[in-house]
Design brief:
33% of the residues lie in helices and 13% in strands. The protein has one domain: Glycogen Phosphorylase B (Rossmann fold), CATH 3.40.50.2000. It is an alpha/beta fold and 246 residues long.
Length: 246
């Protein structure tokens, strides 16, 4: 898992489920654990949230240790899936530690296949905004061509516009930077676009979104594709409230 607040904050919110009797285990890569979780003492005072690690194949330096982003992604697919499987086997063999559900980042290579392999529920978690995922979905379906900078239509005033259902009129500069499909971003763009290919294997779909800000694009996504679930993964003002509202 990447070291981004959009991921760690929601994942830590899952720990609140422990008050409902749910045993929660936070899983991240060894490198992320060493550089963030352990260094910051994030879990040192927490006795209700278990911590486990998997490997992305580059425990000492993550993608910076790889010869290229492409090499990192390929290695992560192989080693990430393998070590995640080993972790589930370890947890399953421990008394009282049966795993019932795997919640995984949509960018986590092979996680959906691992969940199916072990016969447990799989919940894909889209940590980027609904609008960004909506754009990548259209790229995945071939409805928006790459590079995104050339996907715009030119109107009568000579302005470049991109029209997608549920979104206001966009310009190329409004689109995700990785969508230019340059050599620097090619592997990252492919990972982002390929997120949309795993939703059919998921039992549940969570989305990191602010509904009032993305109402139209969210409703289009659910109605037309069943792409995204409705979740607010932010701390609630009342500790007695659930961590999400549907």
């Amino acid at each position: 898992m990447r070291k981004v607040k959009a991921i760690y904050n929601p994942l830590l919110q899952f720990s609140r489920l422990s008050s409902q009797g749910v045993k929660v285990t936070l899983v991240t890569t060894q490198f992320a654990y060493n550089t963030i979780m352990q260094a910051a003492g994030l879990l040192s005072s927490c006795n209700i949230l278990l911590q486990e690690t998997i490997s992305d194949g580059y425990d000492e330096g993550r993608s910076a240790q790889a010869e290229s982003i492409d090499a990192y992604v390929e290695r992560f697919w192989q080693v990430g899936s393998q070590t995640l499987s080993q972790l589930l086997e370890k947890l399953s063999s421990s008394a009282g530690s049966k795993v019932d559900c795997l919640v995984y980042d949509a960018l986590m290579p092979g996680a959906s296949d691992v969940a199916k392999k072990f016969g447990i529920f799989g919940a894909v978690f889209f940590t980027q905004s609904c609008a960004v995922n909506h754009i990548y979905y259209h790229v995945h379906k071939g409805l928006l061509k790459l590079p995104l900078s050339t996907a715009a239509a030119v109107d009568d005033d000579g302005q470049s516009n991109i029209l997608l259902p549920g979104l206001p009129t966009l310009e190329p500069s409004d689109l995700p930077s990785s969508g230019n499909y340059s050599r620097s971003y090619r592997a990252i763009c492919k990972m982002a676009v390929d997120q949309s290919s795993i939703v059919d294997n998921a039992d549940w779909i969570f989305c990191n979104t602010f509904y009032d800000s993305e109402k139209q694009v969210f409703e289009v996504s659910v109605k037309n594709k069943g792409l995204l679930g409705s979740s607010y993964f932010v701390p609630d003002s009342s500790p007695k409230q659930l961590i999400w509202r549907a």
